[in-house]
Amino acid sequence: MRVTERLTVRSTLAQALVRWLLAQRTELMDGTEAPLFAGVFAIFGHGNVLGMGTALSEHPELPVWRGQNEQGMALAAVGLAKATHRRQVGVATSSIGPGALNMVTAAGVAHANRLPLLLLPGDTFVSRAPDPVLQQVEHFGDGTATVNDAFRAVSRYFDRITRPEQLLSALPQVARVLTDPADCGPVTLALPQDVQAEVFDFPASLFEPVVHRPQRPRPDQRTLSHAANLLRASRRPLLVLGGGVRYSGAARVALAFAERHGVPVTETTAGRTLVPHDHPLYAGPLGITGSSSANALAADADLVLAVGTRLQDFTTASWSVFSPDVRLVSVNTARFDAVKHGGLAVVGDARETLDELSVDSWPVDKHWTTRANVERSRWDDYISGLRRPGTGLPTYAQVVGVVNEAAEPGDYVMTASGGLPGELIGGWRAAHPGMDVEYGFSCMGYELAGAWGAAIGHTGGVVTTLLGDGSYLMLNSELYSAAFAGHGFVAVVCDNDGYAVIDRLQRGNGGSAFNNMYADCRTAHAQPPRVDFASHAAALGCAVLTADTLDGLAAAYAQARTHARAGTPAVVVIRTHPASWTDAGAWWEVGVPEISTNAEITEARTASDKAKEGQVRYLKRP
Q1: Distance, CA of 317 to CA of 311 (rounded, Å)
Q2: Residues of the chain with pLDDT under 70
Q3: How far apart are CA 82 and CA 184, in angstroms?
Q4: What pLDDT sits at residue 5?
Q5: How many CB atoms within 10 Å of residue 358?
Q6: Which of 590, 417, 442 is nearest to 112 (CA)?
Q7: Angle in degrees, CA 591, 592, 596, rounded to 5
Q8: What is the pTM (predicted TM-score) of this model?
Q9: Positive or negative CA dihedral for 291, 293, 298, 299?
Q10: Are 562 and 575 in contact (CB under 8 A)?
Q11: How many CB atoms sit inside 10 A of residue 529's CB?
């Protein structure tokens, strides 16, 4: 590339894109500056190796991490974004065809969780001269369609760059979506491989450094006044903190608001660990994977102040956890989320809105204020009982307890699918923030790939991910990526012989055990083979430890933390009980068949219909 006298930079599209990535800066949570794009996860193929690959090789200051599977590396980019509280973005680039399509699932994870992700899949030739090229899917009725159109459904912003100069209009939109608190989500730029290599004289100003600072929209004052009047009239208010509170850095302001007025506080999945566990106003986490303590308060609350949450079904127990007469005030930067369910929509940044929300002379019922601690103490007793050592295989609750007891300030714990989210959300006792439970998309395999990204993005203590044997088998290739790159974390693999939580869901609704636990799956073997997770993880370059007891787990986990600090992923393998669960006592709506030859399923459908009678479809207007 060369700079001309007209203040332009002559470069290929790929070179220009990489230079633009390097020019973007971000303000971190502590106020310091850092690169907006923390690194690129790449698997090169014929759709991107000469264009993007060449351009990236020319700029070693932008870290490029080699993945083993496109889905895995893109999930790592998602984990990085979550670990940096959306202040930094991971980039993933792939070849065309299967490489590109492998990243669609990761885009879904980012979209569901409102997390930034930049995807740069290769695309087929714009010229069409060599068509059909290797890995090209031809659409008989649409010559413009390629497999990358699959990203449209899971992208906040999608564009196909068919001329280099189109970057000039596309890149501002890319930056907007990746940094906007309301529209944040995945961006896909499909890059035809011939266009990646084409040259254009780009304005030099495109590559000038830009610092992206968090936008903090203020709420409408009339709406804020209306919200204050509603709060002032309530006697049993409940404050619900979601992921938006985390990304806004509003936890302290939210807690100060609750303390000022004596309002009990609960958390959603994305907001988990924002409140210290022993705080007297903390009622516990909310919903089906939450706690009976928070759910008890939710049932009796006359007003819910929901901040930074989209109130998904696991948080609201499919909208059965609240009273039908409850009033909802929803604070959110995204109007899309704020207007849901007929609540009063207060559109604004969580920190600024709570700071400006003035509610004088608010006589919250004192018994209501103290009830939070009373209810949570009962929940604590329940969790302590589940953690107590017993006979037989260790349970998920006991495994979480061991990891929780060993946690240190700055640590970061995570999980995604199966039964562990319920154990981690409901049972974890937080002394400091630091949790990622991917239960927006509930993506099996995120636990390991996301942990690799979190290990890159998290600058505090040890990253620990907990997962079942099913998730391990679903996607484990990025263990080698992390081991090769030198990014240490701890993975606690709980082997319970199958998809145990789905087996629970199946049998808990009248079904027979079928195709979830290995004992209930079709096989030609009298004694089917078992997976040797320890040997497999060791073959991928990880430190490996095994345990049979809780004491053994504690010792193995302590040793694994040492390996992680030294830059080596450490895998701890333990056999766990397949049917022991933490129960928050809430209902969740699933599609139980309306008719069946199985009498138990018919009974389950009747019970589901009865439970739906308590489901709030639309709240009264505040």
Answers
A1: 10
A2: 1-6
A3: 12
A4: 54
A5: 11
A6: 442
A7: 140
A8: 0.97
A9: positive
A10: no
A11: 8
One-letter amino acid at 26 equals T
> How many CB atoms within 10 Å of residue 197?
17
576-595 burial, b at 16+ Cβ within 10 Å, e below that, comes to bbbebbbebebbbeeebeee
Q: Measuring CA to CA, which residue among 412, 531, 414 is closest to residue 466?
A: 414
CA-nearest of 419, 418, 443, 423 to 435 is: 423
Separation of alpha carbons 239 and 428, rounded Å: 20
Token pair recorded at residue 401: 């307890």
d(CA 268, CA 285) in angstroms, rounded, equals: 6
Please give the pLDDT value at position 174: 98
Residue (of 161, 174, 152) closest to 108 by Cα position:
152
> Crossing angle, helix 292-300 and helix 366-387, to 10 degrees?
160
Q: Please, are residues 393 and 261 in contact by the beta-carbon 8 Å criterion?
A: no
Q: Which helix (H) or strand (E) holds 544?
A: strand 543-547
Q: For the domain with range 2-212, which CATH number is right: 3.40.640.10, 3.40.50.970, 3.30.56.10, 3.40.50.1820? A: 3.40.50.970
Beta partners for 237?
303
CB atoms within 10 A of CB 556: 23
pLDDT digits (tens, 9 = 90+) for 384-423: 999 999 899 999 999 999 999 999 999 999 999 999 999 9
* Fold agreement (221-378, 389-575): yes
